[in-house]
Specification:
Length: 374
């Protein structure tokens, strides 16, 4: 049909046509922040699991025979690790987010969400029957205003949706202050820890680690995706027992979908065990040093996600291509993933990256920038 061709042509003209490219060059792009995706312990765990007759596919949804020992073991371990009453495992973080927002907020509720929450949360919010209000990124006054207005409309419940570490800017949400607002307005705070899990917090449990230790999960829900620092795949929702049981009974993405591979569940549990161990702590220390170094080079919030904002789409694509020719796998991130005029290189740091590679990348980047400016 013509409209597809037209749209693709339009995207190409705007320098926004996307295509699938195999990984090539030094990884400065993936979300494998701890370098666990290729960790020998995970490989060994996969081999042993299969050699001992572990199942690959689940064969059905969780409520229909697809619930297996590895799923149960993972959820029990995750609940303990994240100090939550209960945890529920989904096949992907995207599925968990959409299921969560579609199921929990009801028609007479309001969702107040940060403008930069991930597309999966946006999708869930869009599909929810609740009213929703978008708030300026990380702006506590804007959150308070929106919550005040929402409360005045007498909703049944208010939900606040944020990320802990924002995926395209690497900045951190003021979780303590947001929690105080949640208390003040009797709301539930939903924290997407996709980019915090494994990396942030004293024991790698996320930016919310101390917050949940202090306040419990009565008015907090956390989402821990398992395909980023944990190196596997899936999403774990941690919440009160009632909330998790409610999801099991009503979340469409959970009920009407084949359970994630038992093998996958087993590997996520192994990855959490690594995070909890001294080996995990050592990886976090290595990553922390790289974060400091990258901040000296590029500024920014000093986390493992370093936004190098170029602005113009074409210039961003051009510099990404030059750096790829230099041997780095770094990609241009353009609208609609980021706001208009905010095209950027998203430098993603990993504990498996060496200091020298980071310095070399900085020099190469500088060289291209200087040529562009000349
Ligand atoms: C903040 C955030 N939440 C959720 C997701 C979805 O997680 P998954 O990749 O496991 O589907 C992502 C993925 O990029 C993300 O960045």
């Amino acid at each position: 049909m013509q409209r597809f061709e037209q749209k693709l042509g339009q995207l190409e003209a705007q320098n926004r046509l996307r295509s699938l490219n195999l990984p090539c060059g030094i990884d400065l792009t993936s979300n494998d922040y701890l370098g666990l995706a290729e960790h020998p312990a995970l490989r060994e765990a996969a081999i042993q699991f299969l050699q001992q007759g572990g199942d690959i596919g689940a064969g059905g949804s969780r409520l229909l025979r697809g619930h297996t020992d590895p799923h149960a073991a993972l959820e029990e371990y995750a609940a303990t690790y994240f100090a939550a009453p209960k945890a529920l495992y989904f096949a992907t973080g995207f599925q968990a987010n959409t299921a969560l927002f579609q199921a929990l907020p009801h028609r007479h509720d309001v969702i107040v969400f940060d403008e930069f929450v991930h597309a999966s949360a946006r999708e869930g919010i869009q599909n929810s029957a609740a009213k929703h209000v978008k708030v300026q990124h990380n702006d506590l006054n804007a959150f308070e205003d929106a919550l005040l207005k929402a409360r005045q409309k007498n909703p049944q419940h208010i939900w606040i949706a944020v990320e802990s570490v924002y995926s395209m800017d690497g900045d951190i949400a003021p979780l303590e202050e947001l929690y105080a607002l949640a208390e003040k307005f009797d709301a539930t705070l939903i924290i997407d820890e996709a980019h915090g899990t494994g990396v942030m917090g004293p024991h790698g449990k996320g930016v919310s680690e101390d917050l949940v230790m202090k306040h419990g999960y009565e008015r907090i829900i956390t989402l821990h995706t398992c395909g980023k620092a944990l190196g596997v795949a899936g999403g774990l929702v941690c919440a009160s027992a009632d909330m998790v049981d409610y999801l099991i009974n009503t979340a469409r993405g959970f009920i009407y979908s084949t359970a994630p591979l038992p093998l996958q569940a087993h590997l996520v549990k192994t990855a959490l065990e690594i995070c909890a161990s001294e080996a995990g702590a050592e990886r976090r220390r290595v990553l922390e040093k790289l974060c400091q170094k990258a901040q000296q080079f590029f500024g920014g919030p000093g986390t493992h996600i370093v936004p190098i904002v170029i602005g113009d789409d074409a210039a961003c694509a051009d510099i990404a291509q030059k750096l790829q020719s230099d041997g780095y796998d770094i990609r241009a991130i353009r609208p609609p993933t980021v706001p208009e005029g905010g095209s950027r290189l998203r430098l993603s740091l990993s504990a498996s990256l060496s200091d020298d590679v980071l310095s070399g990348f900085f020099e190469d980047f500088k060289k291209h920038q200087q040529k562009r400016a000349a």
